[in-house]
Amino acid sequence: MIIKGEILSKSFKGNGYIVIKDGLIKSVGREKPKGSVDIDAEDKLVIPGLIDMHAHFREPGYEHRETIETGSKAAAHGGVTTVVLMPNTNPALDNLETIKYVKKRAEEIGLVDVLIAGAITKGRKGKELTNFKKLAEYVVGFSDDGTTPQSFKIFLEAAKLAKSVNKPILDHAEIEELSGGSMREGNFSRLYGISGIPDVAESIAVARDVEVARYTAAHIHIQHLSTKASVEIVREGKKRGIPVSAEVTHHHLIFKDEDLKDRSPFKKVNPPLPREEDQEELIKGLLDGTIEVIASDHAPYSLEEKSVDIEKAPFGISGIETLLSSLILISKRHEIPFEVLLEKVTCNPAKLLNLPLKGDIKPGYKADIVILDPDKEWRVTEKSLFSKGKNTPFLGKRLPGVVEMTLKEGKILYRGD
Ligand code: DOR
């Protein structure tokens, strides 16, 4: 198969041709190779398939919100070819049987690559550690996502175990004792009369994580950073050579606490949407490399679950289908080159998670490729989303960037009309 178009990847930029054979990229070059062009993507961007390091497909246990099948279709529609699923299913992904079930189901569906974050503690209850040695072979990292062990001792032990099996901890950094509101504490939470979550609920946990990474030399990847203080702590940690990495979601880069004026449960997310100064620092962190990854934290809920007052609604935004379009929006709004943002959803997560042959358009790599029309727009509607989760603040809005085609290992997973 030959694809022609404007290639944008770490290894190759500009107009060119990609030759694909047996699911792998055989060559990438500016000269037209022998044979006819199968996919002519002239005037469109040809980019690596996205790697979404943080998503929830809800199966088993919460299939009314999403299934591995609907989540996989949503991913393909969003240009995502590899996802890392978090363990907050029911039962939790804390045992081999459930992890193997999810992997088998994903293989049967045969769309995107589904990778797993195994739970740190049994039932994600923060008390008893899972069997890291046994799970290591089947997971890309360990997380109690939605929460983190509140015990210093257990978290320290978890980091030592993660180090011993050479996997990262993917940490949802939150001190629960300090948390418990519905939006970020600040002038706007007071103005709108919505209960506030102070930024220290996150930053104290981030400081703990950095210190634990220093002491154990384990790689701790901090999920969805949302405060200025957290970015500063991670930046300092990195300067000191501590093995920490960090992620931000696209919604924390686009929406702010002041946007909660409408009390929309669709904007209730954990961690909460940032204040202006937090968002500015998140952008700085993206630019100076403190934050290597952008992820969706795709958290689908049914409309019934979200159709309640903000104080009662569950936390979460359905995001895997709006991630790529959001990068275009962020690039325009903050004047960040699109390719800088693209690295945060392709080669950077591949490197952090040690996924060989993914995240770049390069000979020998998997032919996971997306054809994107950055100049076209699409409307986010209940109908246009493949996910069961329609809980996105983008609902009804137009977004730039239309995924025309998603290929995984040379096979077309999704084709727009
Ligand atoms: O908003 C969130 N939703 N944050 C989390 O940490 C968990 C997620 C979910 O699973 O719904």
Shape: globular
Query: What structural class is derived from the secondary structure elements?
Result: alpha/beta
- Radius of gyration in whole Å, from Cα? 20 Å
CATH architecture name of the largest domain:
Alpha-Beta Barrel
Give the uncertain stretches in residue-range form: none
Q: Supply the CATH class of the largest domain.
A: Alpha Beta
How far is the N terminus from the C terminus?
A: 21 Å
Which ligands occur here?
Answer: (4S)-2,6-dioxohexahydropyrimidine-4-carboxylic acid
Major sheet summary line: 7 strands, mixed
DSSP strand content: 15-25%
Specify the CATH homologous superfamily of the largest domain.
Answer: Metal-dependent hydrolases
Average pLDDT rating: 98
The H/E string reads EEEEEHEHEHEHEEHEHEHEHHEHHHHEEE
What does this structure look like?
It is built from 13 helices and 17 strands. The protein has 417 residues and is of the alpha/beta class. It folds into two domains: 1-48 and 357-417, Urease, subunit C, domain 1 (Roll); 49-356, TIM Barrel. The strands form four sheets. A seven-stranded mixed sheet has the order 3-2-1-4-15-16-17, with helices on one face. A four-stranded parallel sheet has the order 5-6-7-8. Strands 9-12-13-14 form a four-stranded parallel sheet. The relative contact order is 0.16. It binds (4S)-2,6-dioxohexahydropyrimidine-4-carboxylic acid. (4S)-2,6-dioxohexahydropyrimidine-4-carboxylic acid is lined by residues 56, 88, 145-146, 172, 269-270, 299, 315-316.
Short description:
The chain has helices at 68-77, 96-109, 132-135, 152-164, 187-192, 200-216, 228-239, 250-254, 276-287, 303-306, 323-333, 338-343, 347-352, and strands spanning 2-8, 13-21, 24-29, 39-48, 50-55, 80-85, 113-118, 141-142, 169-171, 183-184, 196-197, 220-222, 244-249, 293-295, 369-379, 398-408, 411-415.
